[in-house]
Amino acid sequence: MMYYLYHIPGSKIGVTKNLVDRVEEQQGYKSNEYEVLHESEDIHEISKLELKLQKDYGYKVDRHLYSNLFNKSKYMKINPTEQTSTFPVPVNKLHGNLQDNIGLKWETPQGWKFEVTSDNIHWIMKNVRESMYDNNRCYIYNKAFYEAFFNPKHTNNLFQSKNSLEVLKTASTESSRFGLIRDWAETRGLYAKGDPITQYAKLGEEFGELGKALLNKDEEEIVDAIGDIVVVLTNLSHLSGYKIEDCIDTAYNVIAARTGRMINGTFVKDA
Fold this sequence. Notes:
CATH topology of the largest domain: Helix Hairpins
Number of domains: 3
Number of helices: 11
Distance between the termini: 51 Å
CATH architecture of the largest domain: Orthogonal Bundle
Strand content: 15-25%
Order of helices and strands: EEHEHEEHEEHEEHHHHHHHEE
CATH superfamily of the largest domain: MazG-like
């Protein structure tokens, strides 16, 4: 499930799962009267960011996290044994329950600490098995889940790193970095549920992060922001029907033979 952090300039910052219903139909704003600052499948991440930006923008800060507005009784009670972790729902209802329980943590008898995240739901659904004793329950094997996401010795799993750039650095040279970015986005449903306008808003956010990093001369954040901008541009290109490689080639073909001179730190092309 995707959550959207929206901004109505001069009014408020809020979070919703449905922009049209919440902002346009309920509050009466048109699509050009608000902006999307951030989107995430992690309800806890976006809930904390909402309060931070409300404070940063000078708006009234909510008393409670968005994530705390939901009934905690909906949380699944996962039953871990040494071999398996069992979910108290049938397979056909597991995906929705996992989405509602992002952030839920549990520990196995051997001490492995697990957590439901937007990154590992796809793996769980692919590897879940129906209980042979009760078709209203299903399970995964702990060892496989641990090796896929939680074993610190494994660093080459696409879903394991929180920093996509780290994944790109260690990935196979047989695949392009842009291809890996597209695979990453496809797996997370960005292409199925996203759109170019939302990515454009995301691009503006990343430009702001880069500007802040440049002003602070924070080299680590500069590298991170530039990388994030490349990721967003790759996804924006794909959602617009183009490959970023082709966009780069087109731009380079235009500038390849261009002449000009440097003026005040900027290259100015000849007339």
